[in-house]
Amino acid sequence: MMKLKMYKLKIYDKQMCICKLSQLTESLNSSILNLNSVYALIKDENTYTLICEEELGSNPEIQKHLISIEKNYSLIKFDQKFGFTEIGVLSSALKPLADAGISILALSSDNRLNLKKRKVEQKDK
């Protein structure tokens, strides 16, 4: 049986949002892509998905092309890099979150696994 390495998760202080945009204009592109508050920009067939700090989600250039916005996400990252060939890293992080009823959007880049979770109120025990 293979032993999994131990990783710690870090939760960032700033709240994140997921913005669905109808288009990415040159003015929007130049106003947001060089900002540290942008976490990811994903293009599919007809829309763009921007994952950024909530404050940026209210930017007038973004609002012009906004289809929808989901707020109150937290950014969680592993504390160190790991190889994409390591087995079980994602499932070991996701299972406890799923068991706790936390909705997750997982992204991978630069040999890091990046998780987004909805902000969850702590339940009384």
Commentary on this structure:
The protein has 125 residues and is of the alpha+beta class. Helices cover 22% and strands 41% of the residues. It has helices at 26-32, 54-57, 60-64, 89-99; strands spanning 9-21, 38-43, 48-53, 66-78, 104-109, 112-118. Strand 5 and strand 6 form a beta hairpin. The radius of gyration is 16 Å and the shape is elongated.
Q: What kind of sheet is the major sheet?
A: 6 strands, antiparallel
Secondary structure: number of strands: 6
The residue ranges in which pLDDT falls below 50 over 5 or more consecutive positions are 120-125
Query: Radius of gyration, Cα only, in angstroms?
Result: 16 Å
- What's the end-to-end separation, in Å? 36 Å
Overall structural class, as computed from helix and strand content, comes to alpha+beta
Number of helices: 4
Q: Estimate the strand proportion.
A: 35-45%
In which order are the strands of the major sheet placed? 2-3-1-4-6-5
The helix/strand order is: EHEEHHEHEE
Q: Tell me, what's the shape?
A: elongated
